[in-house]
TrEMBL record:
This is GRAM domain-containing protein. Coiled coil: none annotated. Residues 4-38 form the GRAM domain. InterPro entries: BAGP1-like, GRAM, PH-like_dom_sf.
């Protein structure tokens, strides 16, 4: 069950804008940039 969801960015070779999802046991980041998905 997702407890919170935030708009955020992950910096690697460039900035990936996406969403961070927080549950009791996991922190997940999801971004879809140029049809390349990051999970």
């Amino acid at each position: 069950v997702v407890e919170h969801s935030y708009s955020c960015a992950l910096e690697r070779s460039f900035l990936y804008h996406g969403r961070m999802y927080i549950s009791a046991w996991h922190i997940c980041f999801h971004s879809n940039v140029f049809s390349k998905q990051m999970k």
